Amino acid sequence: MANYYVQDQQEMVEFLWCEVSASDIRTKRLEHIKNNKNDKNLEQLARNHKLELDLTKARIEWLKTAGPNQKKQIADHYGIFEHLYGEGYFIPFVNLDVYYNLNDGSLLPVFSGNVVKPKEAIKYPSVGYESDANSLWTLSLTSLDGHLTEANKEYVHWLIANIPGDSIEKGDTIVEYLQPFPLKGTGYHRYVFVLYKQDGKVSYDLPKVTSSSPLEARTFITREWYQKYQDNITPTGLAFYQTDWDDSVKDFFHNELKMKEPIYEYDFPAPYIRPQEWFPRRRPFNIYMDKYRDPKQINKEYLVRKLKNEDPFKKPPPQLKFPNAHPLPKNMPSWLKLQEKNIRLGWGRVNDV
């Protein structure tokens, strides 16, 4: 499969660059940089903070030069290709513009790993890319981290085939759009858009999945699916985002899937407590002994001491402005002085234990 990718990359380079060699492109870029460095007027504008740059033109130039390779490097950093295709990869020469329409009328773009919350992606986004009218495309959206039962599988959230030009609405919707649903306590999930160029009309051997279909019908493995149709489709565009849990996921599980929402919590191991010593050195004996007492008894003593001065009908006494400036009795033991100072500062023995 790796050889197939390399062949496709060469074809895409020849198509986009009109058979201009890489050495010519590099020479032209270095010459342009050299001319800019020798331009004294440009230097003065930059020094005086008066140099204006058209960001739109800069982005277009970036997409034509270093953009595709840098997108590939970012995707490698996030493990996108590894979890989609195993050892395979591709360079996204076709720029994929994905925008989610928010409720306030603004657009939220999808770049390469930016954060999009689930409530912002409930409805399917608008997708655009440059193409000729006679070409056919396939667009897929899969979640790499969200499968509920099998870690090495994905869910397909959107799959449209035989898209003429860049008109998504005219394509064949095989899998209807489904909002992201990252589980609570599992961190960020990756959702990946991949655009494939077809060499002709393709009929995928997949059952039609609607928004009311069970999640089991959306189980998907991109690698196996692509290996089956790799003679007819070539990956050319890529965009992905990260998302984590919010309240809309709970509503989605209860109202759409009709099931209880899974919630994950980290199970912290018990803290290590070293064996007791006959004569522990450089350790306050009261804190040292508390480490080997019942934590419930320590919490009880802490709560009783805290509630001792609480009165529901009186205001709490004002805090000392300079806690440790007030003297303590001279005959008070040093360990008790330290404890009293910590209490004044709001640092009880529970924190030390």
What is the N-to-C succession of helices and strands? HHHHHHEEEEEEEEEHEHHHHH
Helix tally equals: 12
Low-confidence stretches: 1-18
Radius of gyration: 31 Å
Give the strand tally: 10
Termini separation: 57 Å
What is the compact description of this entry?
With 353 residues, this protein is of the alpha+beta class. 34% of the residues lie in helices and 18% in strands.
For this entry, give a set of tags.
seven-stranded mixed sheet; alpha+beta; three-stranded antiparallel sheet; 353 residues
Describe the structure.
This protein has helices spanning 2-17, 22-38, 40-47, 55-64, 67-77, 80-85, 222-229, 247-256, 285-290, 295-308, 334-344, 349-352, and strands at 97-101, 107-110, 112-115, 126-128, 136-143, 154-164, 172-175, 189-198, 219-220, 233-243. With 353 residues, the protein is an alpha+beta fold.
List the topology elements:
Blueprint: H1 2-17, H2 22-38, H3 40-47, H4 55-64, H5 67-77, H6 80-85, E1 97-101, E2 107-110, E3 112-115, E4 126-128, E5 136-143, E6 154-164, E7 172-175, E8 189-198, E9 219-220, H7 222-229, E10 233-243, H8 247-256, H9 285-290, H10 295-308, H11 334-344, H12 349-352
Parallel strand pairs: 3-10
Antiparallel strand pairs: 1-2, 1-4, 5-6, 5-8, 6-7, 6-9, 8-10
